[in-house]
Amino acid sequence: MMSQSPPVAIERAYQKWFSPALNRDMEMLVFGSGGVPVLFFPTRAARFYDLENWKIIEAMRERINDREIQVFCVDSVDQESFYSARSPDQRILRHLQYEQYILTEVIPFIRKRNKSKQLTVTGCSLGGYHAVNIGLKHPTLFTKIVGMSARYDLTKPLPFFADLFDGYFDENIYYNMPNHFVPGICDERLLQQIRKIDITLVIGREDSFLADNERLSYALSNIGVPHKLYIWDEEAHRPRYWREMVKLYL
User: What is the pTM of this model?
Assistant: First the structure.
């Protein structure tokens, strides 16, 4: 009887540089060497290495090794923005600096190493918020958006989840909460760009963010944006569910 050969290791590269946008060092893990690039945001309070630790990268092993996808796991600054002790106006400004880091540093880094014309953006929980928010705000940069178990209005208090701006609201917050700015999109050129993106929202039936996802889906439908909303049984807000979701939707 022939013994099975061990699985082929996933190609893995660690990256670190000083970010001018954030004025601090930022780290990243890159898995694979070709295929459609996938920009993957971490969950709330998680780090760039947690997707690997939670076996979510392992769930994509075959596609990574077959050069179907190349996964770029970025770090976050959520503890310095949404979950910091700063004043609410400074929390959203720190988030905007993080967005500039993604736009002016991470995406050019991806483009330099991967010549694909496609770019997927995704994340789980708060990472799903990051993915959907930046994807809808900058639709010419992305060809696919996948938001898993995400919340799309951080200003709305929910059971076990606070308003992350303590009742404060300004224009910066408005334009970074999909459930606020999406219903108001009326520029036809912008709509045409968004309509070209493959958009998928995934949420558990018992997840606290179910209504948030249904609200965003309704808003997208109202402005004529094709998308898919998948509602899973149970809460589906754990790594064991995300390991299955990435197989189905990425």
Answer: 0.96
